[in-house]
Structure to design on (208 residues):
């Protein structure tokens, strides 16, 4: 992903918010790594010592929301979300930005509804003292994390909202605060650079 090179207040806001999204994504990655360690420990304890970890399934269910929802905004900023782009890739200039603006506006509406719904779900779990079936672990923290993840995504879409308005007014301006889907050429160039970086200095003569 190419970050904006300009030093306008809007560009600084985009970079600062992306730093927050990156931190949350690292937290999600840490939970994913912890989940892998937990699964390995469960297998070892169960089959080697016949002593499975109590509440392992409950811990997995509680960790999964963090892995998914703390990375939502990061994925959105990198245009890593799944969508059909057969039509979008044919558009250029103001037409492209208007089309993207409509999709982003629809996302804002959907995320707003999701924030309200997940917040109500969190409140119900918190007020009732809801807990997991096996280890009786409170389930309101992961439900709150889902709401927080949607809130971070909401503010990302708001930044994109103003970024698209700016590009609709000035179609040739530098894209700031909006996800840019990589082209086939960009993907091929990125894969070529990754392959070149993976080659050790001593292997260059072998490749030749």
């Amino acid at each position: 992903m190419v970050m904006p090179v300009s030093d306008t207040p809007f560009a600084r806001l985009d970079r600062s918010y992306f730093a927050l999204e990156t931190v949350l994504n690292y937290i999600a990655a840490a939970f994913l790594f912890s989940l892998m360690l937990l699964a390995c420990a469960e297998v070892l304890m169960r089959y080697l010592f016949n002593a499975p970890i109590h509440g392992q399934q409950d811990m997995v269910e509680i960790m999964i929301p963090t892995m998914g929802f703390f990375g939502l905004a990061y994925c959105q900023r990198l245009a890593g979300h799944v969508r059909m782009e057969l039509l979008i890739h044919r558009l250029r200039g103001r037409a492209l930005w208007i089309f993207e603006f409509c999709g982003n506006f629809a996302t804002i509406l959907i995320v707003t509804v999701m924030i309200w719904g997940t917040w109500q779900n969190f409140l119900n779990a918190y007020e009732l003292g809801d807990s997991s079936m096996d280890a009786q672990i409170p389930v309101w923290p992961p439900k709150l994390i889902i709401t927080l993840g949607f809130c971070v995504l909401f503010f990302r879409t708001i930044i994109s909202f103003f970024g698209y308005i700016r590009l609709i007014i000035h179609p040739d301006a530098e894209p700031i605060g909006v996800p840019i889907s990589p082209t086939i050429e960009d993907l091929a160039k990125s894969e070529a650079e990754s392959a070149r970086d993976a080659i050790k200095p001593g292997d260059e003569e072998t490749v030749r």
Q: What stands out?
A: The chain has a mean pLDDT of 84. The first helix runs from residue 9 to 48. The two ends are 30 Å apart (CA to CA). The helical segments are 9-48, 56-69, 72-77, 93-128, 140-169, 184-198, 204-207.
